[in-house]
Structures are given as structure tokens and as C-alpha cells.
Amino acid sequence: MAITGVMRPGHVMLNVLDIDESVKHYCEHMGLIETDRDDQGRVYLKCWDEHDWFSVVLQKNDSPGMDHMAFKVDNQASLLRFEENLKKFGCNVERIAAGELNHCGERVRFDSPTGHTFELYTEKEVYGNGLPTTNPAPWPEGLQGMQAVRFDHCLLYGDDLDGTVKLFVEALEFDVAEQVVDGELQIAAFLSCSHKAHDIAFIRNEEKNKIHHASFLLNTWENVLRAADIISMKDIPLDIGPTRHGLTRGQTIYFFDPSGNRNEVFCEDSYRYPDSPVLTWTPDHLGQAIFYHSRELNDRFLNVVT
Amino acid sequence: MNKFNIFINDSDETFECFEQEHLLKGMLRLGRKDIPVGCRNGGCGVCKVKIVSGQYQAGIMSRNHVSVEEQNEDIALACRVFPRSDITLNVLGKMKNEFVRTHVASQNTKS
Ligand code: FES
Ligand SMILES: [Fe+2]
Predict the structure, then answer these.
(1) Which structural domain range is residue B13 located in?
(2) Which among A11, A68, A103, A198 is annotated as catalytic?
């Protein structure tokens, strides 16, 4: 198994204005499963095909947005290495005790030049994916709504794009898989720590610490169309789609949660290996990069963030 | 079902809105674009308006975009405002166009 160091996005903690409405959205409409609540009122959710106890935490707040995003690291030695790297890089680094989030081990929290808070951890209790590990069926029965398969990535907005990209590449050993470049200036960076087209992405924007979307994987294009049906059926505010991105090739649809945080469900984006070339988009093809069919830059999609 | 007239000072135009729908929903149902439309769930702030006159009920809104003081001055996010009478409003929210503008501009200088 060659995925070492940072393995994957482990969870995202989202700030929401109303817990009950949000749980209904993420569970009944998107198909996540509630796995716990804690004494602070935070709700723990997972997608069906994830084994760890949670991948989304909803936290009540008076403004929406992202509290933090956490990555799961393969072992303690890697965690210590990354912690050293982060300190050398100049991040404020602190340890959060095991159990501060239910079912999660000790976390290493750090800040970033774009103002976002991230965490690393190695341990999370196993909840299972509803299937046996011997002779498993292809899917469990009783899934709801869009039947999201896994929490996949976030796209974040912030000012010091160069700084945060440098941090992920140098301190955490991510690769830039795909980018938008205007002359010398990088506008967007899609970073991978795995075989995926991206595990996290950033867009340059004057305001710090903004989230554009939290994204969840579906298995097929037909499931993306079915998600579009559910969006209309349940009166969920649609942003755009179903469509295809040039960047990452993802087949996708975007909509908003009950606090205005944007969600994506998508399928079949591209993949990469450590020796894959970096893919680059230029401003004259920005329309295609973002919406491959319509090629039209869209004010709401580009500028609405939480 | 009560229906009210929503008058936009900025564009000098009126649209109709039912009492159980928020102002943006009424506006979009009629195919209008007078107020910027974002998340439609009180989170992104682009639909910010000042209610100059009229009665309304407001739902929960992001504090990042509407402070307590503003709320007391009838500033609200249109997607969380349900009319209880005819309403006159000013549009405050603007789409932050920086990303698009910068890049369209850089394209133009290159060509
Ligand atoms: S459209 Fe986002 S706050 Fe109203
Ligand atoms: Fe995405």
C-alpha cells in the first residue's frame, strides 16, 4: 500500500445556524448517517462507505462556515514528522486531547496563511460501513436520499494562496495536481495526498478563512441526476449543475445546506500517480475549466462563500 | 394566501411576494434579478437589504453579515425575510466580483 503520510481528508467540522434542520439536510437529503452527539450539542455524521466513526461534525454557531478540516495520517511517526515540519514552517501548532471529539484520538491543530484551521490525527474508532468485512454485499440496505458514499474534499478561499500551497506541499507532502495560472500568478490549486484528483483545493480571494464547498462522492452520473431530482423534490437551493468541470473532470452538482454552506456531490473525476504531470488551466480557458459545457463564469458560483 | 408588493428603490421596480415565501423566492418566481441571489439560506450575505417601510418577519441570519445593530435598523438578508405587508427596500448586498473582474481584465490586456 503506497499511500503514506497524510492518507485522506478525515473530517470537516461545519458551523450551522440550526442543528435540527442541518441534520435533516445531511441525513435525510444527502444520505449521511448520524453516529453520535456530544455534550456540546455537536452532531457526528458519516457517509455510508466510510469505516471510521465520523467524517462530518455539525456545530451550532451564529455564522456558517468551516470550523476546521482534519486529515488522517498513517502513523505516529508521520504525525511527529508533520508536527515538526509545521512548527518549522511557522504555523501555530497545538495538541488537542484525545476524546475532545468523541471517538477521535489526539489531534494536532495548526493554522494556515489563508486563515483556515486544519488538524491531523492518527486514530479514530471504527464504526463500519454497514457491511461485513467477510463476503460483503456491494451496498447496505436502508440508505437515504442522495446516498453519499464518502466525504471527499473541500474547496477553500483565502488571500495568501502561495503560503498555504507551500505549507501543504512542503510540510505535509501533498502534490499540486491541477492549477489555474494567470502568467506567474497561481489563482487556484488542487492538491492531492493520494490517487485522487484532489483532496483539498484553494482559490485566491481577498478574504481569509472562507469555504466554497464541502464535497461528497457519488458512484455514477445517474446518481448525480438523482441528486438533482432530490434537490428539486426537497426544495433545496440549487447552485449549479448537473454539469462537468474541466478542472478534475468531475461530473457534478452544487447546492446549499440550510445555513448557506455550499455542498457538492460528484462522480468520476480524474486520478493521479506520483509521476502524473501537473495539469494547468489558463485565464482564456477559465470558463471551460469551471463549467466545461456552458463555459460561462457565474457570479454566484465564483463569489458566494461562507 | 396573502400576497404583497415589494418595491425596490434602487431599480424602481416592484415584484409580488406571498406571505409564506421569502423575498428572493418571490422575486425569482417572477424571473426578476433585482436583488443578488446566493445561498437562499441566510448564510452568504449577498442578498442584504434595508427594509425602508413595511412589516415583515425575519428568520435566522448569519451574524457575519447582519450585526445586532444592523438587525435593529431593519437591515436583513432578503432570503430570510417574509413579508407581512407591502414592503419598500434598498439593496445593500453586492456580488464581490474581484475574481471575475481581475481575470477578465487580464485577458483583455493580453489580447
Ligand atoms: S442569498 Fe445567501 S444570505 Fe440570502
Ligand atoms: Fe469540489
Answers:
(1) 3-110
(2) A198
Ligand 1 atom closest to B79 (CA): 4
Say what percent of chain A tops pLDDT 70: 100
What confidence tens digit (pLDDT) does each residue in A184-203 have? 999 999 999 999 999 999 99
Residue A204 exposure: Cα atoms within 13 Å on the Cβ side = 19
Strand-by-strand arrangement of the A238-244 sheet: A238-244, A251-256, A262-267, A210-217, A150-158, A200-204, A185-192, A175-182, A279-281
Query: Which CATH number belongs to the domain containing residue B16 in this structure?
Result: 3.10.20.30
Rg (CA), chain B: 15
CB contact under 8 Å between A260 and B103, yes or no, is no
Indicate if A153 belongs to the active site: yes
- Asked if A230 and A215 count as a contact pair (C-beta separation under 8 A), the reply is no
Coil, strand or helix: which one is B27? helix
Average pLDDT, chain A: 97
Tens digits of residue pLDDT in A78-114: 999 999 999 999 999 999 999 999 999 999 999 999 9
Q: Which residues of B26-64 are buried (b: 16+ CB within 10 A; e: fewer)?
A: bbbeeebebbbbbbbbbbbbbbbbebeebebebebbbeb
**Dist CA B24 CA B34 (whole Å):** 9
Q: Chain B: nearest CA to A23, how far in angstroms? A: 15
CA–CA distance, B81 with B20 (Å, rounded to integer):
10
Instruction: Give the integer Cα–Cα distance in Å for A222 and B72.
Output: 47
Contact at CB, B44 and A306, closer than 8 angstroms: yes
Domains in chain B, number: 1
Contact indicator for B34, B91 with CB cutoff of 8 Å: yes
Reading chain B (111 residues) residue by residue, the pLDDT tens digits are 899 999 999 889 999 999 999 999 999 988 888 899 999 999 999 999 999 999 999 999 999 999 999 999 999 999 999 999 999 999 998 765 444 444 444 444 443
Give the model confidence (pLDDT) of A18-53 as tens digits.
999 999 999 999 999 999 999 999 999 999 999 999
Label residue B78 exposed, middle or buried (CB < 10 Å: 0-12, 13-18, 19+).
Answer: buried
Q: Is there a contact between B110 and A284 if contact means CB atoms under 8 Å apart? A: yes
As a whole number of Å, the end-to-end CA separation of chain B is 55
For ligand 1, the distance from its centroid to the CA atom of residue A96, given in whole angstroms, is 34
